[in-house]
Amino acid sequence: MIKRKTQARAQPEGELDAGKLELGEDFQDAECLLISEVKVLLEAQYEGRKGEEEDKEMSGVFTRTLEYVQKFSRYTNRDTIKEVRALMKPTSLHPFECAQLGNLCCSEYEEAKSLVPSIGDKIGDEDLDSLLKQMDSLKKYQG
Prior knowledge:
Blueprint: H1 35-50, H2 60-72, H3 78-88, H4 95-104, H5 109-115, H6 125-140
């Protein structure tokens, strides 16, 4: 059995809870991305490095992350990603909630509210259901 040294992380002063949008100071002004957006960024970086002659092999973390986002990306092209973002823009949802909805692709509003409890009453059930159906439609009919 291999024992690894682990560094003890400093625990935050209070408990953090993403369900209540308590994300910590590091994430106060951070932009939350969809997995599909991360995929676009990593693939662009990969393509940019592809032509380099030097022996700059992709790190294992980069490669595994790229494989992950390629596997779990819900939207396959940039236009669809932009449309999904545009659908969520007029809502009163926090950027973290928007990213969660875009990544999870819930089929019903009850499921969305269960998985992203911070949504609460920020958006009505009918409006949330309509939003989810539009997102699903974009996912199904993307080019």
